[in-house]
Amino acid sequence: MKLIYLALAGVLLTGCGGEEFQDLRDFVKNSGADLRGKIPPPPNVKLYEPFAYVNDTNLADPFKPRKPEASASGKRGENEPDLNRPKEALEDFPLENLKMVGYVLKAKVSHAVIRAPDRKLYQVKVGNYIGMNFGLIQKLSDTEIVIKELVQDSTGDWSERISSLQLVE
User: Angle at CA 129, nearest 5°, toward 94 and 126?
Assistant: First the structure.
């Protein structure tokens, strides 16, 4: 009896082995035969032509800083801040680190309550200075402070920039 079972198992195993997935193997083998990648030729590269910046041309040298000439009166800039005025307490902190946390109306004058990074609260009004860029408070409402800052560019000129602080709830 054992011999019959062994013979039967051998026949069954022989039937499982064979060519069952041969069509799939042939498909995978032949699927990429006709495909060839087409790469366009590289573009023509123009040769670099050096340009000499000489003093006798009207072109500015891009490697030298351009700074406008000072006027005859010696005035550096119309927006230059008063560097001799005493600084206020909130000028020691960057504007982005200050937070408006409240609004107070005292004697018909609007005041904003500012929290500084030192965790202290300060009251400011229109005309006070705030931030590290000579920020002058221009307008104050119950939800916003509008500040005119003076920033210096690479040529040494001062320009105005309008910033604001929103009420943090």
Answer: 125
Which helix (H) or strand (E) covers residue 31, if one does? helix 22-31
Q: Report d(CA 59, CA 37) in Å as an integer.
A: 49
89-135 pLDDT tens trace: 999 999 999 999 999 998 989 999 999 999 999 999 999 999 999 99
What CATH number was assigned to the domain covering residues 89-166?
A: 2.30.30.830
Domain layout of the chain by residue ranges:
89-166
Count H helices and E strands in the chain, helices first: 2, 7
The CA distance from 122 to 99, in Å, is: 10
- For 29, 31, 46, 49, 89, the CA distances from 42, given in Å and listed in that order, are 32, 29, 12, 21, 63
